Amino acid sequence: MNEIFLLKLGEIVLKGANRRQFENRLCSNVKRRMRPFGEFDVTILQSTVYVEPTDDACDVEGAWDACHYIFGVVSLCRCRPCEKTLDAIYDAVMEYLADDLAAAASFKVESRRSDKRFPLNSIEISQQIGGRLAEQFPHVTVDVHHPAYTVYVEVRDHAAYVHGPAQPGAGGLPTGVGGRAAVLLSGGIDSPVAGYMIAKRGVELECIHFFSYPYTSELAKDKVLELARLMTRYCGRMSVNIVGFTEIQEAIRDHCPEEYFTLIMRRFMMRISQQIAKEHGCGCLVTGENLGQVASQTMEAMAVTHAVVDLPVFHPLIGMDKEEIVTIARRIGTMETSILPYEDCCTVFTPKHPRTKPRLGPVEEVERRLDVEGLVARALENTEMVKVRYHG
Ligand code: ATP
Ligand code: MG
Protein backbone atom coordinates (compact mmCIF):
# COMPACT_ATOMS: atom_id res chain seq x y z
CA MET A 1 0.00 0.00 0.00
CA ASN A 2 1.21 3.55 -0.50
CA GLU A 3 0.07 4.97 2.81
CA ILE A 4 0.64 3.82 6.35
CA PHE A 5 0.03 5.25 9.82
CA LEU A 6 2.86 5.52 12.33
CA LEU A 7 1.72 5.72 15.96
CA LYS A 8 4.47 6.86 18.33
CA LEU A 9 4.49 5.51 21.83
CA GLY A 10 4.42 7.92 24.73
CA GLU A 11 5.75 7.37 28.21
CA ILE A 12 5.57 3.61 27.85
CA VAL A 13 8.93 3.93 26.14
CA LEU A 14 10.31 4.71 29.58
CA LYS A 15 8.96 1.68 31.36
CA GLY A 16 12.08 -0.51 31.35
CA ALA A 17 11.36 -4.14 32.04
CA ASN A 18 7.62 -3.81 31.46
CA ARG A 19 8.09 -2.23 28.11
CA ARG A 20 7.60 -5.41 26.10
CA GLN A 21 4.35 -6.20 27.87
CA PHE A 22 3.14 -2.62 27.33
CA GLU A 23 4.03 -2.72 23.67
CA ASN A 24 2.27 -6.02 23.12
CA ARG A 25 -0.81 -4.71 24.81
CA LEU A 26 -0.83 -1.55 22.74
CA CYS A 27 -0.37 -3.58 19.59
CA SER A 28 -3.33 -5.84 20.35
CA ASN A 29 -5.46 -2.83 21.34
CA VAL A 30 -4.69 -1.19 18.00
CA LYS A 31 -5.54 -4.41 16.14
CA ARG A 32 -8.89 -4.63 17.88
CA ARG A 33 -9.67 -0.96 17.24
CA MET A 34 -8.88 -1.34 13.54
CA ARG A 35 -11.15 -4.35 13.09
CA PRO A 36 -14.33 -2.42 12.17
CA PHE A 37 -12.43 -0.71 9.35
CA GLY A 38 -11.15 -3.71 7.40
CA GLU A 39 -7.93 -5.73 7.26
CA PHE A 40 -4.95 -3.83 8.64
CA ASP A 41 -1.46 -5.09 9.35
CA VAL A 42 -0.42 -3.89 12.78
CA THR A 43 3.17 -4.35 13.92
CA ILE A 44 5.38 -2.70 16.49
CA LEU A 45 9.03 -1.88 16.02
CA GLN A 46 11.35 0.65 17.63
CA SER A 47 8.63 2.19 19.83
CA THR A 48 6.39 2.81 16.86
CA VAL A 49 3.22 1.01 15.84
CA TYR A 50 2.85 0.56 12.09
CA VAL A 51 -0.72 0.38 10.86
CA GLU A 52 -1.03 -0.57 7.23
CA PRO A 53 -4.20 -1.11 5.22
CA THR A 54 -3.90 -4.36 3.27
CA ASP A 55 -6.44 -3.73 0.51
CA ASP A 56 -8.66 -1.15 -1.10
CA ALA A 57 -11.69 -2.23 0.89
CA CYS A 58 -10.20 -0.70 4.06
CA ASP A 59 -11.90 2.39 5.46
CA VAL A 60 -8.68 4.36 5.83
CA GLU A 61 -10.33 7.58 7.00
CA GLY A 62 -12.35 5.79 9.66
CA ALA A 63 -9.27 3.95 10.88
CA TRP A 64 -7.19 7.13 10.95
CA ASP A 65 -9.84 8.86 13.04
CA ALA A 66 -10.03 5.92 15.46
CA CYS A 67 -6.25 5.99 15.97
CA HIS A 68 -6.60 9.38 17.67
CA TYR A 69 -8.47 7.76 20.57
CA ILE A 70 -6.07 4.98 21.49
CA PHE A 71 -4.37 5.45 24.87
CA GLY A 72 -0.60 4.95 24.85
CA VAL A 73 -0.12 6.80 21.56
CA VAL A 74 1.52 10.20 22.05
CA SER A 75 1.53 11.31 18.43
CA LEU A 76 0.58 9.91 15.06
CA CYS A 77 1.12 10.61 11.41
CA ARG A 78 0.10 9.32 8.03
CA CYS A 79 3.06 8.69 5.81
CA ARG A 80 4.26 7.36 2.51
CA PRO A 81 6.65 4.41 2.68
CA CYS A 82 9.37 4.18 0.08
CA GLU A 83 12.66 2.51 -0.73
CA LYS A 84 15.67 3.53 1.25
CA THR A 85 17.40 5.61 -1.41
CA LEU A 86 17.63 9.38 -1.68
CA ASP A 87 15.88 9.34 -5.05
CA ALA A 88 12.98 7.29 -3.77
CA ILE A 89 12.68 9.52 -0.70
CA TYR A 90 12.65 12.65 -2.82
CA ASP A 91 10.05 11.16 -5.19
CA ALA A 92 7.88 10.17 -2.24
CA VAL A 93 7.99 13.72 -0.85
CA MET A 94 7.08 15.11 -4.26
CA GLU A 95 4.13 12.73 -4.68
CA TYR A 96 2.86 12.85 -1.15
CA LEU A 97 3.60 16.32 0.27
CA ALA A 98 4.06 18.63 -2.73
CA ASP A 99 0.71 20.40 -2.26
CA ASP A 100 1.33 21.17 1.41
CA LEU A 101 4.85 22.32 0.65
CA ALA A 102 3.81 24.56 -2.20
CA ALA A 103 1.27 26.27 0.05
CA ALA A 104 3.75 26.93 2.89
CA ALA A 105 5.68 30.16 3.40
CA SER A 106 8.80 28.38 4.58
CA PHE A 107 9.97 24.83 5.27
CA LYS A 108 12.67 22.58 6.56
CA VAL A 109 13.40 18.88 6.35
CA GLU A 110 13.93 16.94 9.55
CA SER A 111 15.34 13.44 9.28
CA ARG A 112 15.86 10.49 11.57
CA ARG A 113 17.89 7.48 10.76
CA SER A 114 17.37 4.47 12.97
CA ASP A 115 18.88 2.17 10.33
CA LYS A 116 22.51 3.07 10.88
CA ARG A 117 23.53 1.16 7.73
CA PHE A 118 22.04 3.90 5.62
CA PRO A 119 25.08 5.72 4.13
CA LEU A 120 24.03 9.28 5.06
CA ASN A 121 23.44 10.52 8.57
CA SER A 122 20.29 12.40 9.44
CA ILE A 123 21.78 15.87 8.88
CA GLU A 124 23.04 14.85 5.47
CA ILE A 125 19.66 13.38 4.52
CA SER A 126 17.96 16.66 5.47
CA GLN A 127 20.50 18.70 3.52
CA GLN A 128 20.20 16.58 0.39
CA ILE A 129 16.42 16.37 0.33
CA GLY A 130 16.02 19.99 1.51
CA GLY A 131 18.36 21.21 -1.23
CA ARG A 132 16.43 19.45 -3.97
CA LEU A 133 13.10 20.69 -2.61
CA ALA A 134 14.39 24.27 -2.38
CA GLU A 135 15.20 24.12 -6.07
CA GLN A 136 11.80 22.69 -6.89
CA PHE A 137 9.91 25.25 -4.79
CA PRO A 138 11.87 28.49 -5.15
CA HIS A 139 9.08 30.58 -3.63
CA VAL A 140 9.14 28.59 -0.37
CA THR A 141 12.07 29.71 1.75
CA VAL A 142 14.15 27.38 3.83
CA ASP A 143 13.88 28.25 7.51
CA VAL A 144 15.48 25.73 9.87
CA HIS A 145 14.45 27.61 13.04
CA HIS A 146 10.79 28.52 12.59
CA PRO A 147 9.55 26.76 9.48
CA ALA A 148 5.89 27.04 8.57
CA TYR A 149 6.01 23.43 7.39
CA THR A 150 8.28 20.54 8.20
CA VAL A 151 8.92 17.55 5.97
CA TYR A 152 9.88 14.53 8.02
CA VAL A 153 12.02 11.72 6.67
CA GLU A 154 12.51 8.59 8.71
CA VAL A 155 14.87 5.87 7.58
CA ARG A 156 13.84 2.80 9.48
CA ASP A 157 14.56 -0.94 9.34
CA HIS A 158 12.20 -2.01 6.57
CA ALA A 159 11.69 1.17 4.61
CA ALA A 160 11.95 4.92 4.60
CA TYR A 161 8.90 7.04 5.43
CA VAL A 162 8.02 10.60 4.59
CA HIS A 163 5.35 12.62 6.28
CA GLY A 164 4.22 16.07 7.34
CA PRO A 165 3.70 17.28 10.92
CA ALA A 166 2.40 14.67 13.37
CA GLN A 167 -0.88 15.08 15.25
CA PRO A 168 -1.28 14.64 18.99
CA GLY A 169 -2.48 11.22 20.14
CA ALA A 170 -4.69 10.37 23.11
CA GLY A 171 -1.66 10.03 25.44
CA GLY A 172 -1.76 7.98 28.63
CA LEU A 173 -1.01 4.27 28.91
CA PRO A 174 -2.35 1.36 26.85
CA THR A 175 -5.74 0.17 28.03
CA GLY A 176 -5.37 -2.93 30.17
CA VAL A 177 -1.86 -2.48 31.56
CA GLY A 178 -3.18 -0.86 34.72
CA GLY A 179 -5.86 -3.35 35.78
CA ARG A 180 -9.61 -2.75 36.07
CA ALA A 181 -11.69 -0.12 37.83
CA ALA A 182 -15.40 0.16 38.53
CA VAL A 183 -16.76 3.62 37.72
CA LEU A 184 -19.94 4.88 39.34
CA LEU A 185 -21.51 6.47 36.31
CA SER A 186 -24.36 8.91 36.81
CA GLY A 187 -25.88 10.91 34.00
CA GLY A 188 -23.98 14.04 35.04
CA ILE A 189 -20.98 15.88 33.66
CA ASP A 190 -18.44 14.67 36.18
CA SER A 191 -18.44 10.90 36.30
CA PRO A 192 -17.75 10.27 32.59
CA VAL A 193 -14.76 12.61 32.87
CA ALA A 194 -13.58 10.80 36.00
CA GLY A 195 -13.85 7.48 34.17
CA TYR A 196 -11.97 8.83 31.19
CA MET A 197 -9.13 10.08 33.41
CA ILE A 198 -8.67 6.73 35.12
CA ALA A 199 -8.97 4.88 31.81
CA LYS A 200 -6.23 7.07 30.42
CA ARG A 201 -3.86 5.55 32.96
CA GLY A 202 -4.17 2.20 31.22
CA VAL A 203 -7.15 0.98 33.23
CA GLU A 204 -10.08 -1.01 31.85
CA LEU A 205 -13.47 0.17 33.05
CA GLU A 206 -16.59 -1.51 34.33
CA CYS A 207 -19.50 0.92 34.80
CA ILE A 208 -22.17 0.89 37.47
CA HIS A 209 -25.33 2.95 37.32
CA PHE A 210 -28.07 3.21 39.95
CA PHE A 211 -31.48 3.47 38.47
CA SER A 212 -34.67 4.33 40.36
CA TYR A 213 -37.57 3.55 38.11
CA PRO A 214 -40.17 5.12 38.02
CA TYR A 215 -38.60 8.09 39.84
CA THR A 216 -36.05 8.25 37.08
CA SER A 217 -37.18 7.44 33.56
CA GLU A 218 -36.03 5.01 30.89
CA LEU A 219 -34.65 8.09 29.14
CA ALA A 220 -32.27 8.64 32.04
CA LYS A 221 -31.03 5.07 31.65
CA ASP A 222 -30.60 5.48 27.90
CA LYS A 223 -28.66 8.65 28.54
CA VAL A 224 -26.20 6.80 30.80
CA LEU A 225 -25.79 4.03 28.24
CA GLU A 226 -25.08 6.65 25.60
CA LEU A 227 -22.47 8.28 27.87
CA ALA A 228 -20.83 4.90 28.37
CA ARG A 229 -20.88 4.31 24.63
CA LEU A 230 -19.19 7.67 24.05
CA MET A 231 -16.51 6.74 26.59
CA THR A 232 -15.75 3.49 24.74
CA ARG A 233 -14.29 5.54 21.95
CA TYR A 234 -11.30 5.87 24.28
CA CYS A 235 -11.72 2.96 26.68
CA GLY A 236 -12.69 0.13 24.37
CA ARG A 237 -15.76 -1.99 25.01
CA MET A 238 -17.29 -1.91 28.48
CA SER A 239 -20.17 -3.33 30.47
CA VAL A 240 -22.64 -1.16 32.29
CA ASN A 241 -24.25 -2.70 35.36
CA ILE A 242 -27.66 -1.12 35.88
CA VAL A 243 -28.67 -1.56 39.50
CA GLY A 244 -32.33 -1.29 40.47
CA PHE A 245 -32.20 1.22 43.32
CA THR A 246 -35.85 2.05 43.90
CA GLU A 247 -36.44 -0.18 46.92
CA ILE A 248 -33.40 1.24 48.70
CA GLN A 249 -34.38 4.85 48.04
CA GLU A 250 -37.92 4.23 49.25
CA ALA A 251 -36.64 2.48 52.38
CA ILE A 252 -34.36 5.42 53.15
CA ARG A 253 -37.19 7.88 52.56
CA ASP A 254 -39.55 5.95 54.81
CA HIS A 255 -37.19 5.24 57.71
CA CYS A 256 -34.40 7.83 57.88
CA PRO A 257 -34.33 11.53 58.76
CA GLU A 258 -34.26 13.67 55.66
CA GLU A 259 -30.93 15.33 56.44
CA TYR A 260 -29.26 11.92 56.02
CA PHE A 261 -30.96 10.80 52.78
CA THR A 262 -28.10 11.51 50.43
CA LEU A 263 -25.38 10.21 52.70
CA ILE A 264 -27.10 6.91 53.37
CA MET A 265 -28.01 6.52 49.74
CA ARG A 266 -24.39 7.04 48.77
CA ARG A 267 -23.24 4.49 51.34
CA PHE A 268 -25.54 1.95 49.70
CA MET A 269 -24.09 2.85 46.31
CA MET A 270 -20.61 2.20 47.61
CA ARG A 271 -21.46 -1.15 49.18
CA ILE A 272 -23.18 -2.42 46.06
CA SER A 273 -20.47 -1.06 43.78
CA GLN A 274 -17.78 -2.76 45.79
CA GLN A 275 -19.47 -6.15 45.41
CA ILE A 276 -19.89 -5.68 41.67
CA ALA A 277 -16.30 -4.44 41.41
CA LYS A 278 -14.94 -7.49 43.19
CA GLU A 279 -17.00 -9.88 41.06
CA HIS A 280 -15.46 -8.32 37.96
CA GLY A 281 -11.89 -8.22 39.21
CA CYS A 282 -11.77 -4.45 39.70
CA GLY A 283 -9.16 -3.11 42.11
CA CYS A 284 -10.78 0.22 42.89
CA LEU A 285 -13.93 2.32 42.70
CA VAL A 286 -14.00 5.61 40.81
CA THR A 287 -16.42 8.49 41.35
CA GLY A 288 -16.79 11.99 39.95
CA GLU A 289 -16.69 13.58 43.39
CA ASN A 290 -15.22 17.06 43.58
CA LEU A 291 -14.36 18.69 46.89
CA GLY A 292 -16.97 21.19 48.03
CA GLN A 293 -19.15 20.93 44.93
CA VAL A 294 -22.24 19.75 46.82
CA ALA A 295 -23.11 18.89 50.42
CA SER A 296 -22.19 15.23 49.99
CA GLN A 297 -18.73 16.18 48.75
CA THR A 298 -17.24 17.74 51.85
CA MET A 299 -14.38 15.76 53.31
CA GLU A 300 -16.49 14.78 56.30
CA ALA A 301 -19.29 13.51 54.06
CA MET A 302 -16.88 11.65 51.82
CA ALA A 303 -15.27 10.00 54.85
CA VAL A 304 -18.70 8.75 55.98
CA THR A 305 -19.59 7.59 52.46
CA HIS A 306 -16.35 5.74 51.85
CA ALA A 307 -16.24 4.13 55.31
CA VAL A 308 -18.38 1.20 54.12
CA VAL A 309 -15.85 -0.11 51.58
CA ASP A 310 -12.33 -1.46 51.75
CA LEU A 311 -11.38 -1.06 48.09
CA PRO A 312 -9.60 2.22 47.38
CA VAL A 313 -11.96 4.91 46.06
CA PHE A 314 -10.40 7.19 43.45
CA HIS A 315 -11.91 10.55 42.54
CA PRO A 316 -9.71 12.07 39.90
CA LEU A 317 -11.68 15.34 39.74
CA ILE A 318 -11.31 16.06 43.44
CA GLY A 319 -9.26 19.25 43.05
CA MET A 320 -10.52 20.55 39.74
CA ASP A 321 -12.67 23.58 38.98
CA LYS A 322 -15.95 23.03 37.18
CA GLU A 323 -14.60 24.83 34.09
CA GLU A 324 -11.67 22.45 33.89
CA ILE A 325 -14.03 19.48 34.09
CA VAL A 326 -16.33 20.96 31.46
CA THR A 327 -13.38 21.57 29.14
CA ILE A 328 -12.46 17.90 29.28
CA ALA A 329 -16.10 16.82 28.92
CA ARG A 330 -16.33 18.85 25.73
CA ARG A 331 -13.06 17.56 24.39
CA ILE A 332 -13.97 13.91 24.93
CA GLY A 333 -17.46 14.46 23.56
CA THR A 334 -19.61 13.62 26.60
CA MET A 335 -20.78 17.13 27.50
CA GLU A 336 -23.73 17.40 25.11
CA THR A 337 -25.21 14.15 26.39
CA SER A 338 -24.47 14.94 30.04
CA ILE A 339 -26.53 18.12 29.94
CA LEU A 340 -29.68 16.45 28.61
CA PRO A 341 -32.27 17.21 31.25
CA TYR A 342 -33.16 13.81 32.75
CA GLU A 343 -33.29 13.33 36.49
CA ASP A 344 -30.59 11.36 38.28
CA CYS A 345 -31.62 9.26 41.27
CA CYS A 346 -29.55 11.59 43.47
CA THR A 347 -31.83 14.47 42.65
CA VAL A 348 -35.06 12.61 43.35
CA PHE A 349 -34.99 12.57 47.14
CA THR A 350 -32.62 15.46 47.77
CA PRO A 351 -32.92 16.80 51.31
CA LYS A 352 -33.58 20.51 51.76
CA HIS A 353 -30.95 20.79 54.49
CA PRO A 354 -28.39 18.02 54.04
CA ARG A 355 -25.71 17.39 56.63
CA THR A 356 -22.43 18.84 55.40
CA LYS A 357 -20.32 17.78 58.37
CA PRO A 358 -21.76 14.42 59.34
CA ARG A 359 -20.19 12.13 61.92
CA LEU A 360 -20.02 8.40 61.32
CA GLY A 361 -21.66 7.31 64.62
CA PRO A 362 -25.05 8.96 64.11
CA VAL A 363 -25.20 7.84 60.48
CA GLU A 364 -24.57 4.23 61.48
CA GLU A 365 -27.16 4.60 64.20
CA VAL A 366 -29.82 5.72 61.71
CA GLU A 367 -28.84 3.00 59.24
CA ARG A 368 -29.63 0.30 61.81
CA ARG A 369 -33.30 0.95 61.08
CA LEU A 370 -32.76 -0.61 57.66
CA ASP A 371 -32.15 -4.20 56.59
CA VAL A 372 -28.89 -3.21 54.93
CA GLU A 373 -27.82 -6.73 53.94
CA GLY A 374 -31.17 -7.69 52.50
CA LEU A 375 -31.50 -4.45 50.56
CA VAL A 376 -28.01 -4.83 49.11
CA ALA A 377 -28.61 -8.47 48.17
CA ARG A 378 -31.89 -7.71 46.42
CA ALA A 379 -30.39 -4.76 44.54
CA LEU A 380 -27.57 -7.00 43.33
CA GLU A 381 -30.11 -9.58 42.14
CA ASN A 382 -31.93 -6.79 40.42
CA THR A 383 -28.93 -5.80 38.31
CA GLU A 384 -28.91 -5.91 34.55
CA MET A 385 -25.69 -5.95 32.55
CA VAL A 386 -25.54 -4.13 29.21
CA LYS A 387 -22.49 -4.32 26.96
CA VAL A 388 -21.58 -1.18 25.04
CA ARG A 389 -19.15 -0.58 22.22
CA TYR A 390 -18.45 2.37 19.99
CA HIS A 391 -19.08 0.70 16.67
CA GLY A 392 -22.28 -1.29 16.26
P1 ATP B 1 -21.98 13.71 38.25
O1 ATP B 1 -21.87 14.91 37.40
O2 ATP B 1 -20.99 12.66 37.89
O3 ATP B 1 -23.40 13.21 38.34
P2 ATP B 1 -22.32 15.20 40.62
O4 ATP B 1 -21.46 16.38 40.76
O5 ATP B 1 -23.72 15.39 40.16
O6 ATP B 1 -21.56 14.15 39.71
P3 ATP B 1 -23.30 13.60 42.81
O7 ATP B 1 -24.62 13.53 42.16
O8 ATP B 1 -23.19 13.98 44.23
O9 ATP B 1 -22.30 14.55 42.05
O10 ATP B 1 -22.58 12.24 42.65
C1 ATP B 1 -21.23 12.09 42.98
C2 ATP B 1 -20.72 10.85 42.30
O11 ATP B 1 -21.48 9.70 42.70
C3 ATP B 1 -20.90 10.89 40.80
O12 ATP B 1 -19.85 11.56 40.15
C4 ATP B 1 -20.93 9.43 40.46
O13 ATP B 1 -19.62 8.88 40.43
C5 ATP B 1 -21.68 8.83 41.63
N1 ATP B 1 -23.13 8.75 41.32
C6 ATP B 1 -24.10 9.63 41.59
N2 ATP B 1 -25.30 9.21 41.15
C7 ATP B 1 -25.10 8.01 40.58
C8 ATP B 1 -25.92 7.05 39.93
N3 ATP B 1 -27.23 7.23 39.78
N4 ATP B 1 -25.35 5.93 39.47
C9 ATP B 1 -24.02 5.74 39.61
N5 ATP B 1 -23.20 6.59 40.20
C10 ATP B 1 -23.70 7.71 40.69
MG1 MG C 1 -25.00 13.73 39.66
Describe the structure.
The protein has 392 residues and is of the alpha/beta class. The chain has 14 helices and 15 strands. Strands 1, 2, 3, 4, 5, 6, 7, 8 and 9 form a nine-stranded mixed sheet that branches. The protein has a six-stranded mixed sheet with strand order 14-13-10-11-12-15, sandwiched between helices. Helix 6 (218-235) links the parallel strand 11 (204-211) and strand 12. Adenosine-5'-triphosphate binds at residues 184-186, 188-191, 208-210, 287-289, 293-294, 296, 344-346.
Helicity range: 40-55%
Radius of gyration: 26 Å
DSSP summary, beta strand count: 15
Identify low-pLDDT runs. Answer: none
List keywords for this structure.
392 residues, alpha/beta, nine-stranded mixed beta sheet, six-stranded mixed beta sheet, 21% strand, binds adenosine-5'-triphosphate, binds magnesium ion
Write the layout of secondary structure elements.
Elements lengths: L3 E6 L9 H16 L5 E6 L2 E6 L6 H8 L5 E10 L3 H18 L2 E8 L8 H15 L4 E2 L6 E7 L4 E4 L3 E2 L11 E5 L5 H11 L3 E8 L6 H18 L2 E7 L1 H10 L5 H19 L5 E2 L12 H8 L6 E2 L7 H11 L2 H4 L6 H4 L11 H8 L4 H10 L1 E6 L4
Parallel strand pairs: 5-6, 5-7, 10-11, 10-13, 11-12, 13-14
Antiparallel strand pairs: 1-3, 1-4, 2-3, 4-8, 4-9, 7-8, 12-15
Helix pairs in contact: 3-4, 5-6, 5-10, 7-8, 8-9, 8-14
The structure holds adenosine-5'-triphosphate and magnesium ion.
